[in-house]
Design brief:
Blueprint (H helix, E strand, L loop, with lengths): L3 H6 L1 H10 L6 H37 L5 H7 L2 H25 L18 E6 L12 H7 L3 E2 H8 L5 E2 L1 H20 L4 E2 L5 E3 H7 L18 E3 L4 H5 L6 E2 L6 E10 L18 E11 L4 H18 L4 E5 L11 E9 L4 E10 L3 H6 L2 E3 L6 E3 L1 E9 H11 L7 E2 L13 E2 L5
Parallel strand pairs: 4-8, 7-13
Antiparallel strand pairs: 1-10, 2-3, 5-6, 8-9, 9-15, 10-11, 11-12, 12-15, 13-14, 16-17
Helix pairs in contact: 3-5, 8-13
The protein binds one RNA strand of 90 nucleotides through helix 3 and helix 4.
Amino acid sequence: MLDPQLLRTDLEHVAGRLAMRGYHLDIENYAALEARRKELQTKTEELQAERNTRSKSIGQAKARGEDIEPLLAEVGRLGDDLKAAKEELEKVREHLDHLALDMPNLPAGQVPEGHDESDNEEVRRWGEPTALAFEPRDHVEIGEMLEGIDFEVAAKLSGSRFAVMAGDVARLHRALAQFMLDMHIREHGYREMYVPYLVLDSAMQGTGQLPKFAEDAFATSDDPTRYLIPTAEVPLTNLVADEIVDADRMPLKFVAHTPCFRREAGAYGKDTRGMIRQHQFDKVELVQIATADTAEDCHEALTGHAEAILQALELPYRVMLLCAGDMGFSARKTYDLEVWLPGQQAYREISSCSNFGDFQARRMKARWRNPDTGKPELVHTINGSGLAVGRTLIAVLENYQQRDGSVIVPEPLRDYMGGRERIPLPGD
RNA sequence: GGAGAGGUGGCAGAGCGGUUGAAUGCACCGGUCUUGAAAACCGGCAAGGGCUAGCGCCCUUCGAGGGUUCGAAUCCCUCCCUCUCCGCCA
């Protein structure tokens, strides 16, 4: 949510920045509603103040043993007027709230203009695209040869966009998640968290998935409705919802390994082959809760933590600064990490690291107490994948594939694979 | 699932329907004292919103939502959550 103060004082500027990311804000409509709100609020508060003073004087008169009948008569229909004013104010408020929840975050100053991923800026590159001395197979072929990934049997169970993994590939998938978690805990100072995979709509609203993107999430049919988390960002970030965090604990750094569930409602026909885009996938998620003046640094650091995994696995990647049009709803600045996939001969997103400023914090009422002022201030939230486990598995399979279809196990994963150095073909 | 207890400020914990936005303690901030620290003492200290150039004034908030009343933290209803005991269970 944007600062309502900013919307009141600098509406045109806000509208301009929102236009950068393709959001049209109807200035006149908003200004009119806001004026109406102000008028009604003033009126309501005046009526309330009058009621309060009169009621108080009734109490005092009664305490002195005076006759309160005439006073009661005076109050008359004050209550009815007040009730009517309140109801009208509530309607306008709801309308404004709805608009506010619908508005995406403002892009940060450094964010390039643009509409889609073609306008993203490459910030840096690590490693060279893997050169294979043979025609590279993609992970679907490799998975088949290893009898390690089965999309058909998954479709039987669950329909499209699911996978069943088996044997060494399943183990490699687990190894990756373990390795990532351990590295973030041991080397990057994150606190490991185990969190619910089903959350209430308040949590989804806190991080910005609701109310606007309900069609992207799986929901339960019980009451209250719960949502399958589309990312651990939701439970991890909402840990501080309605909290006032102690200054000396900042920044909070959380890491969790969870499954993620996405409807992929708008992705018909996109990435239908293989495991790139699934309804269910595992991810190791990093979240930091920071103060306003450290958030930028924390964002850079967190991005580095995600990069460190790719570097340790020696997977070539590049870092992209997303343009305004390609950023997620709640983000003010986002770096995507894109890993090289030999099977596609392309860089593909494997992590997205964003700074949300106070956008999510305002929705969540997440604050910290600034010792300088003694006052609570909104926290800034940052998160990123560190990394998407399924896509990392794909990257390992494709970048470490051998001519015969076997796959070398990257060195840091071998301890997690019982010392194995290679995933052999079945029967080999 | 059955029975009971409870949800109040950063935390703990009081609170007859009417100067209670809320006692008290802790924590925190400032001051006195001290070579320094601690202790002691004095003072301050909720959040959100509106109006104002500012001093400041006003409104709202005691789990959530309704209701009774001139007036609700206090009474009534519904819901949520927590705790204890029993049952069941990974």
